[in-house]
Amino acid sequence: MTTSTAETLADRLAEVRKSIAAACERAGRSATSVTLVAVSKTQPAATVLEAVADGQVDFGENRIEEAAAKIATVEAQASAALTWHMLGHIQSRKAQDVIARFDWLHSLDTPKLAERCSHFAIESQREVNALLEINISGEASKSGFQVSGWQHDSHQRESLWNDIRRIIKLPGCISRG
After folding, report:
1. Which CATH architecture best describes the domain 36-175?
2. Phi/psi-derived region of residue 28, left when phi > 0, alpha when psi is between -120 and 50, beta in every other case
3. Model-level pTM greater than 0.70?
């Protein structure tokens, strides 16, 4: 989200929103059904606040260490209610901090992590939206439920469905996918 001299952050946000609206129109879908998440990782709080001033309300981070102070600073100065998205892998030992600061988890990748997040969400008396991360490519460097052979392996497919059934019943984490 750094700005260049030729183009401001406001200009870039406007261009992205225009592209989203055009894509939605081609698909016969309302542009309001799409959420633009500005990835603010590595950006200073001042840049995030500039984006907030331009109407951006959803922000994505992937490291709790960097995000914690930034979220506190931005929230204290923002003129709008913001939604924070944890985009990266969540280490089990950092789940409590993640639950305390983020509204969306984009990378629940094990039932154990989901249970831990559920526990901390209940303890904090809040609900967090959760997306499941599923690795269908089988790449070892990628996180997520490992299901590269799900189309042909009924055991793997059933195991995944059992994990999903278990996760969506957990209180505190609203599973969205």
Report:
1. Alpha-Beta Barrel (3.20)
2. left
3. yes
Please give the structure tokens belonging to residue 175.
Answer: 């599973």
In the predicted model, what is the mean pLDDT of residues 122-127? 94
pLDDT at 5: 47
Residues 90-107 have pLDDT tens digits of 999 999 999 999 999 999
Phi, psi values for residue 84, rounded to 5°? -105, 135
Task: Give the start-to-end residue ranges of the domains of the chain.
Answer: 36-175
pLDDT value at residue 141: 86
Strand partners, 173: 128
Label residues 104-119 b or e (16+ Cβ within 10 Å = b): bbbbbbbeebbbbbbb
- Which pairing describes strands 58-61 and 38-39: parallel, antiparallel, or unpaired? parallel
E strand or H helix at 75, and its extent?
helix 64-77
Q: What are the start-end ranges of the E strands in the chain?
A: 38-39, 58-61, 83-86, 104-108, 128-132, 134-135, 145-146, 173-175
